[in-house]
Structure formats: C-alpha cells, structure tokens
Design goal:
164 residues; 7 helices; alpha/beta
Length: 164
C-alpha cells in the first residue's frame, strides 16, 4: 500500500481494518507518521502481512535474500545483519523479533507470517512464542535500527506478543 493511502480511504469510507503488507516491520516504520496514528484515532484495526519483508527477516542476510520481492541491496543486507547481531546478543532469533515487533502497536490485531510448508508454520508458532526481553527493543532503538517512537511488545513470559 502506498504511504498516505489509508487516511484517504478512511476519509471516504468507514472501515474496520486494513491489511498492511511490508509497511510496518523491523525494516520499515514510516507508517508511524500518518497511517497508524489515524487508525488508532479512528479505532481501525491493522492486520500485518509480510512481516518478513518478503524473506530477509526470516532468512537473515544470506546470499540471494529477498527484500520487498527484489534482491536485497547491500544496504538492506547490512542493516538486517546489524539487527540480527542485536537479536543474537539477546538470544532472540531474527524471525521471532520480526513477527512479534508489529504486535506492540495498539492498532495491530494480528500478523500473518505466511508459509509454504508445514515446517514453516511450526517455525512461525515457535517464533511467536519465543520470549523477547524489553532490552532487545531498547538496543535496536539506541542503535538507530528501530524508530525511537515505535511501540514495542512488552516482556511477559505467558504471552510475549501482548503489547504494553
């Protein structure tokens, strides 16, 4: 979805939710400027699609990794590598951080991980259940890898995906 489209839709039609793909991820948070605040103000829910940005946040910065359905640029590979390094310091798999991050926003109701094989479904369930300490999100923000104003999930051993 093009940035700015959600507010235009909401000006024209009362909606209950949007499916937002690849626009609110560990790599992209520009929707915090206009789209997500408008949804929060209007009580509109968001379902996040493509939380892995079409692959690289699931695979990590490997040869041939895809970012938004294209080959990842060296800059994207470098940034994902830095995010993965921070995740490793906190014993958090990159896919777990990628799937859980969007759930910190109060308008986000769900994340669709996407899967082609049964083992990918199992991996996504494990990633959603993996505990993530608040210190991970704080370090990503302090390193400039995540926007400082991005809401993040709270740490809760019973349900690490619930927002604070």
């Amino acid at each position: 979805m093009t940035l700015g489209a959600i507010p235009r839709f909401l000006d024209a039609v009362p909606l209950d939710f949007f499916l937002l793909a690849m626009r609110y991820t560990l790599m992209e948070q520009d929707t915090l400027d206009e789209e997500l605040p408008r949804c929060a103000a209007d009580g509109v829910g968001i379902v996040i699609g493509a939380a892995f940005n079409s692959g690289i946040l699931a695979t990590g910065p490997v040869q041939g990794a895809k970012y938004n359905y294209e080959d990842a640029t060296p800059e994207v590979v470098e940034k994902v590598g830095r995010i993965q390094t921070v995740c490793a310091r906190h014993n958090v798999p990159l896919p777990a951080a990628a799937l859980q991050f969007p759930l910190g926003h109060p308008s986000v109701a769900s994340v669709i991980p996407g899967a082609f094989k049964p083992e990918q479904i199992s991996a996504s369930v494990d990633a959603f259940r993996h505990p993530i300490p608040p210190s991970l999100w704080a370090e990503l923000k302090s390193e400039g890898l995540l926007r400082a104003d991005a809401p993040t999930p709270r740490d809760d051993s019973r349900d690490s995906c619930r927002p604070s």
